[in-house]
């Protein structure tokens, strides 16, 4: 259940919201005040009420007053904005690092023990630092409830930190436009007790994905697709997204484009392996080249076999 | 002889016939109208694309179009509205038509160059729009063309950028033309501080056009170098830096916002004193703030990039400068409202547009404060709040000023009056539609809805419905306004020289003006907004 933000969703919320209240407060005051003046003048000095205008060219006193007052106000807004933001740049030394990887169109999170999840798990009352890596184009990690956002730039390391003081689930959005399925590039951050987080990230992770106990081979395969964000582009029900569906994939013949030539291949185990590790050599006809990146050195042999079991199931084998 | 002299510019065809008498005319008034017809056509296309986006966003999931179409539509909407409509906008239409008349000149300094600017504009527009129909389909990158996505996509991004590059030349040439015209062709006696405020804003705009626009050219050359010669400027795969692209893009595109808004402020500064029957309050303060905006406006581009990964020093420097640029805009608002004090206000359609301009421009400007402050920007950046903010400035500010200007100068341009009641009802419907369309987007942004979203979670549904309904109301208002103006251009009552009692020079010439505007170049010996009765003669 996604929750609304509260003051203790992250330690930044009260500072940022304080700046919001200050800036919006003054802004609304000015908007209402000036509009009221304007409407009052229009009613009072309309031609039917005031046939003769008074000749006034200006007033230096007023010009000075309405230059100085806004200057003081905007400088104080600058200060509020700056002081509320400064703490976001001061990462505590004991912050737990979590490597965050963005690609079109999924986020994955890797913890210190190598565990990878598609949902971000963070401990309560403990600073967390996300090391942000973008593999293809610009993305931006945005957690509205925490008041944090940072662009993820390919070829450049960026980071972001926060500390949540309340257990719960909050939305993660990609805020920087990244192509076709930008608005589907979402995830969830789950704030859990520190003890659970330690349990999760300190034991050997290979048998544990997404906090689910592995029950059968099919479940393992599903977990692998979720772990690597495959489902952002591929479905299990036969419908077409950016990439082909897994349904009935095995043993079918399909037309692929290789070096600008159409060839017919049978989708066997070897083909699936090539499609995951070198996805841009043979591209299924009707799909765009270059959208999928190689998962070499990421998807392990064991995970690949789990995927195969899953695909066999989806292909009725 | 005198018969010939008083033929209006609309009848004076020169040596060409029919449409050629317009598209080959070097008369600044005909060129202004050529821009008007082109810009209004592009604007209507942009409005349709915008309405389609709003329709799609009325409900989560697919409503009418698929995500690929949606992404192409918001890109085209941005490219058309920014590069083809709002940047040329007021300077090209009203600047061309009115600048020479307002400063007492027969034409701009370089009439042939002026015609060339229009042709370059049309050529650039064709190139930009050709991306729709050629190759891999319309670009789907957003009008900002951010690297590296824009360089990876298989759609037609290059023609759109090339179009922007060519349009840039049109903009530079118009800027040069206006600056020289203002320096050299002011009527005898019209010192700098006796010049009306609309020409003043065109002067500030001209400098921005000349100094900022070449950056687009440099950027385009770098893109071509990267795509053709594989030199890594922006693409990290080649060793480039995507943030460098953002810097270059905003070094032009931020000052471009001031290219858009300054002439709008100029038009408002003309309308308000005329309908207040009173000298503008703080003429010099408005002039100085115009120049201050033009100058400081160059140094604030970084506020588009607060979450991009720029250094901390750059962040607070740009934040501080952004707050400084707010001050001259505030000064203008105070002076405009101050003008109404002890005035004698004629409640006519152009004044309603000007007064509502003040309201929407204040919302646009004040919402910019929350975007200029670092802590709040981080939360709001790339959300619907930003979309609402710049639509309040660019569509609210520039759009309302354009509407005010066309209703103000309509009798001068066409020599006829429009139906005032219909014009006022068009205004009120448009105004209500505008607020209904964009105010909910502030709320959406504050609650966290990112921009450029095809689909959204359920909690964003309510405000999106309201916003979509607003778009229909706005379009209804627009239809009434356009119907009224087109009809009146043919069938309206004949207007005399000075239907509103304006004091600037354009109200001393015929409606519509003759080819050379003035029979005799006037001598100016008073301030442009002196409404005292004893001066009338």
UniProtKB/TrEMBL annotation, chain A:
Domain Cytochrome oxidase subunit II transmembrane region profile: 1-92
Cofactor note (record): Binds a copper A center.
Subcellular location as annotated: Cell membrane; Membrane
Enzyme class: translocase
UniProt catalytic activity: 4 Fe(II)-[cytochrome c] + O2 + 8 H(+)(in) = 4 Fe(III)-[cytochrome c] + 2 H2O + 4 H(+)(out)
UniProt cofactor(s): Cu cation
Source organism, top-level taxon: Bacteria
Topology relative to the membrane: Multi-pass membrane protein
UniProt xrefs under PROSITE patterns: COX2 (PS00078), COX2_CUA (PS50857), COX2_TM (PS50999), CYTC (PS51007)
Keyword Transmembrane helix tagged: yes
Enzyme Commission identifier(s): 7.1.1.9
Purpose: Subunits I and II form the functional core of the enzyme complex. Electrons originating in cytochrome c are transferred via heme a and Cu(A) to the binuclear center formed by heme a3 and Cu(B).
Annotated protein name in UniProt: Cytochrome c oxidase subunit 2
Protein species of origin: Carboxylicivirga marina
Underlying gene: coxB
TrEMBL record, chain B:
PROSITE patterns assigned to the protein according to its UniProt record, in alphabetical order: COX1, COX1_CUB
Membrane topology label: Multi-pass membrane protein
Keywords attached to this entry: Electron transport, Heme, Iron, Membrane, Metal-binding, Respiratory chain, Transmembrane, Transmembrane helix, Transport
Boundaries of every Cytochrome oxidase subunit I profile domain copy: 16-525
Record-annotated membrane-spanning stretches: 33-53, 73-103, 115-137, 157-180, 200-224, 244-268, 280-301, 313-331, 351-375, 387-410, 422-445, 465-486
InterPro entries registered for this protein in UniProt: Cyt_c_oxase-like_su1_dom, Cyt_c_oxase-like_su1_sf, Cyt_C_Oxase_1, Cyt_c_Oxase_su1_BS
Subcellular location: Membrane
Top-level lineage group: Bacteria
Keyword Transmembrane: yes
Signal sequence interval, chain numbering: none
Family as reported in the entry's similarity comment: Belongs to the heme-copper respiratory oxidase family.
Protein name: Cbb3-type cytochrome c oxidase subunit I
Species: Carboxylicivirga marina
């Amino acid at each position: 259940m996604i929750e609304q933000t509260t003051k203790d969703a992250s330690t930044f919320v009260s500072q940022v919201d304080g700046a919001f209240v200050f800036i919006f407060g003054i802004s609304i005051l000015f908007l209402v005040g000036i509009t009221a003046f304007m409407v009052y003048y229009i009613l009072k000095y309309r031609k039917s009420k005031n046939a003769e205008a008074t000749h006034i060219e200006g007033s230096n006193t007023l010009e000075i007053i309405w230059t100085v007052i806004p200057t003081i106000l905007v400088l104080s807004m600058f200060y509020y904005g700056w002081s509320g933001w400064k703490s976001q740049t001061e990462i505590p030394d004991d912050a737990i690092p979590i490597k965050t990887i963005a690609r079109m169109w999924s986020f994955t999170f890797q913890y210190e023990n190598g565990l990878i999840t598609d949902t971000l798990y963070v401990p309560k009352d403990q600073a967390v630092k996300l090391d942000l890596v973008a593999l293809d184009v610009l993305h931006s990690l945005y957690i509205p409830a925490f008041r944090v956002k940072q662009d993820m730039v390919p070829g450049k390391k960026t980071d972001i930190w926060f500390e949540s003081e309340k257990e719960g689930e909050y939305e993660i959005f990609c805020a920087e436009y990244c192509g076709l399925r930008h608005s589907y590039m979402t995830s969830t951050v789950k704030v859990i007790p520190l003890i659970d987080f330690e349990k999760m990230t300190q034991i050997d992770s290979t048998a544990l994905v997404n906090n689910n106990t592995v029950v059968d081979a099919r479940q393992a395969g599903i977990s692998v697709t979720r772990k690597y964000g495959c489902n952002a582009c591929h479905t299990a029900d036969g419908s077409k997204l950016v990439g082909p569906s897994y349904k009935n994939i095995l043993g079918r013949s399909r037309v692929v484009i290789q070096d600008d030539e159409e060839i017919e291949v049978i989708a066997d185990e070897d083909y699936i392996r090539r499609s995951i590790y070198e996805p841009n050599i043979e591209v299924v006809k009707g799909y765009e080249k270059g959208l999928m990146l190689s998962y070499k050195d990421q998807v392990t042999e064991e995970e690949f076999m789990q995927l195969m079991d899953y695909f066999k199931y989806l292909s009725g084998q | 002889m005198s018969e010939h002299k008083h033929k209006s510019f609309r009848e004076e065809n020169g040596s060409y016939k029919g449409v050629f008498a317009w598209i080959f005319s070097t008369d600044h008034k005909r060129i202004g109208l050529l821009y008007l017809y082109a810009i209004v056509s592009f604007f209507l296309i942009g409005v349709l694309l915008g309405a389609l986006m709003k329709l799609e966003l009325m409900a989560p999931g697919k409503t009418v179009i698929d995500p690929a179409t949606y992404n192409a539509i918001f890109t085209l909407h941005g490219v058309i509205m920014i590069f083809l409509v709002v940047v040329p906008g007021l300077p090209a239409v009203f600047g061309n038509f009115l600048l020479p008349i307002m400063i007492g000149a027969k034409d701009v300094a370089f009439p042939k160059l002026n015609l060339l600017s229009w042709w370059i504009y049309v050529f650039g527009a064709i190139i930009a729009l050709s991306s729709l129909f050629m190759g891999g389909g319309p670009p789907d990158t957003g009008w900002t063309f951010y690297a590296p996505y824009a360089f990876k996509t298989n759609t037609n991004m290059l023609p759109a950028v090339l179009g922007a590059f060519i349009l840039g030349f049109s903009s530079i040439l118009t800027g040069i033309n206006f600056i020289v015209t203002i320096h050299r062709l002011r009527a005898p006696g019209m010192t700098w501080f006796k010049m009306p405020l609309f020409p003043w804003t065109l002067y500030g705009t001209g400098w921005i056009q000349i100094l900022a626009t070449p950056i687009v050219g440099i950027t385009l050359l770098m893109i071509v170098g990267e795509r053709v010669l594989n030199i890594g400027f922006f693409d990290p795969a080649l060793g480039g830096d995507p943030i460098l692209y953002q810097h270059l893009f905003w070094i032009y595109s931020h000052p471009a916002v001031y290219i858009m808004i300054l002439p709008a402020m100029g038009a408002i500064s003309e309308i308000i004193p005329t309908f207040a029957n009173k000298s503008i309050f703080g003429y010099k303060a408005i002039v100085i703030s115009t120049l201050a905006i033009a100058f400081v406006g160059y140094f604030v581009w970084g506020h588009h990039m607060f979450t991009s990964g720029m250094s901390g020093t750059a962040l607070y420097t740009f934040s501080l400068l952004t707050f400084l640029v707010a001050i001259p805009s505030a000064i203008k608002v105070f002076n405009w409202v101050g003008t109404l004090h002890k005035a004698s206000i004629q409640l006519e359609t152009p004044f309603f547009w000007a007064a509502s301009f003040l309201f929407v421009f204040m919302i646009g400007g004040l919402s910019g404060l929350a975007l200029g402050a670092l802590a709040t920007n981080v939360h709001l950046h790339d959300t619907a709040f930003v979309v609402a903010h710049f639509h309040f400035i660019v569509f609210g500010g520039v759009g309302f000023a354009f509407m005010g200007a066309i209703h103000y100068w309509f009798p001068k341009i066409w020599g006829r009056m429009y139906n005032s009641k219909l014009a006022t009802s068009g205004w009120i419907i448009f105004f209500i539609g505008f607020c209904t369309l964009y105010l909910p987007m502030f709320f959406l942004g504050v609650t966290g809805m990112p921009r450029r979203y095809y689909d959204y979670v359920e909690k964003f549904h309510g405000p999106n419905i309201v916003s979509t309904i607003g778009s229909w109301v706005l379009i209804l208002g627009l239809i009434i306004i356009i119907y009224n103006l087109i009809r009146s251009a043919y069938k309206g009552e004949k207007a005399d020289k000075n239907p509103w009692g304006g004091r600037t020079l354009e109200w001393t010439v015929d409606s519509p003006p003759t080819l050379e505007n003035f029979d005799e170049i006037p001598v100016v010996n008073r301030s442009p907004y002196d409404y005292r009765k004893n001066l009338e003669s």
